[in-house]
Amino acid sequence: MRKDDIIVGLDIGTTKIAAVVGRLDEYGRLNIVGVGQSPSQGLRRGVVINIQQTVESIRRAVEEAELMAGQRIKTVYAGIAGDHIRSINSKGVISITNEDMVITERDIERVLDVARAIALPMDREVLHVLPQEYAVDSQLGIKDPIGMSGTRLEAEVHIVTAAAAAAQNIVNCIRQAGYEVADIVLEPYASSLAVLEDDERSLGVGIIDIGGGTTDIAIFFEGSIRFTSVIGLGGEHVTSDISHGLRTSHDQAEEIKKKYGVADQSLLQADELIQVPGVGGRKPREISRAVLSGIIQPRMTEMLALAMREMQKSKIVEYLGAGVVFTGGAAMLEGLDVLAEKELGLPVQIGKPRISGGLVESVDSPMYATGVGLLRYAIENEDYVAYEEGEKGMQWILNRLKKFFDDLFQ
User: Fold this and answer.
1) Which tens digit of pLDDT belongs to each residue from 128-151?
2) Is it true that domain 224-350 has CATH number 2.160.10.10?
3) Which of 168-178 are b and which e, b meaning 16 or more Cβ less than 10 Å from the residue's Cβ?
4) Partners of 22 in the beta sheet?
5) Residue 60 neighbours by CB distance under 10 Å
6) In 3-state terms, the chain is what percent helix, strand and coil (to 5)?
7) Going edge to edge, which strands form the sheet with 86-95?
8) CATH level 3 topology of 6-83+165-195+353-408
9) Rounded distance, CA 172 to CA 376, Å?
């Protein structure tokens, strides 16, 4: 990727859609130059259920990011999640047929093609083929075999698949909003690129991304991704529990969760009272904060138990020396790290994106891990310009600014 290229990550979640715009500086460091966010309407558990509402939500988020960045965006990297995601580990083997028997990039492509040639139902498509390690003849555990000599090349890979219709609906919504899709990326994989260090991946680490409608899991060991999974529970289920338990509106329940919610009741030092707005003209009520935590903690405990059950399927949980890193909006819930350490029996950290410059404070939150991770993915995998160049692009920005101020002072 060239200096001054604009890259855009679009995190399409159940409760919010976030667009993050980045640019590489002269030293190759990623700087954030624009952020846009819009309430997500038209999705449930990461799957599109209303095309038009999703299109409008995407458009609002990207246009806000465009104004902040001062560039008209053409292309985005989009995140995908949902309980339709499936993954499997696979192997591929080929013979080296070059005259000098030296492994080339073409050989890597061939062996990965063989590894991905698994039987899939017609309604599924491959999102990622992620190499774990290679073997050349009898030598195992090779990370990069290019340039090595041998007669046989074997690859172990992690294959991530999605429901073809779900992926295509996301692409359709982005295109109807006026943008092109460079690639679709599994959200927990993208989040890992934003928050994990190389030594964590080598030592063994799990990433749990708690979004609005789903909880996404990825496990890394010896530097490679080994397991991914998705649970159909997220922060929206906590909000729904609060709404029903306190008999208040969904929006008020969300505000109460963010402001007063505590995942572990043992952290409450005093019996603090909070005000719950009434609905339908009813008067506000006062309740104990301990009552609120008593609603939140059982649901979070359930989600953590389900996450651990999924991670145990990987057979490597006991080797996660770096523990678990939490990302996503629900990771900001007070006391989550304390409760998670008790329930999982592993070291826990709340992950924030690692950014070197630009609007760092705008993305200094676990909820932007996926958006920033999509930028990292773009840097590692592609070289493209995602903005409108020249006089046409500048005129568009001026028109957008004029419309913004006209709307503001009407």
Assistant:
1) 999 999 999 989 999 999 999 999
2) no
3) ebbeebbeebe
4) 7, 32
5) 18
6) 40, 30, 30
7) 86-95, 152-163, 124-136, 139-142
8) Nucleotidyltransferase; domain 5 (3.30.420)
9) 24
The single-letter DSSP state of residue 313 is T
pTM, 2 dp: 0.88
Cα 239 from Cα 245, distance rounded (Å) = 10
Kindly report, residue by residue over 210-253, the tens digit of the pLDDT: 999 899 999 999 999 999 999 989 999 999 999 999 999 999 99
Q: Name residues whose C-beta falls within 8 Å of residue 127's C-beta, 6 or more positions apart in sequence.
A: 80, 85, 160, 161, 162, 167, 184, 185, 186
Q: What does the domain layout of the chain look like in residue ranges? A: 6-83+165-195+353-408, 86-162, 224-350
**Distance (Å, whole) CA 160 – CA 378:** 18
Cα gap 365→54, rounded to integer Å? 24
Q: Which two tokens stand for residue 61?
A: 């988020």
Q: Is there a common fold for 86-162 and 224-350?
A: no
Token pair in block for residue 309: 């059950």
Residue 245 CB coordination number (10 Å): 16
133-152 burial, b for 16+ CB within 10 Å, e for fewer? bbbbeeeeebeebeebebee
CATH architecture of the domain covering 86-162: 2-Layer Sandwich (3.30)
At 232, list the tokens.
């159909």
Q: What is the pLDDT of residues 304-349, one digit of tens each?
A: 999 999 999 999 999 999 999 999 999 999 999 999 999 999 999 9
> What's the Cα-to-Cα distance from 235 to each of 37, 218, 241, 285, 337, rounded to whole Å?
17, 18, 10, 24, 15
CA distance 61 to 20: 9
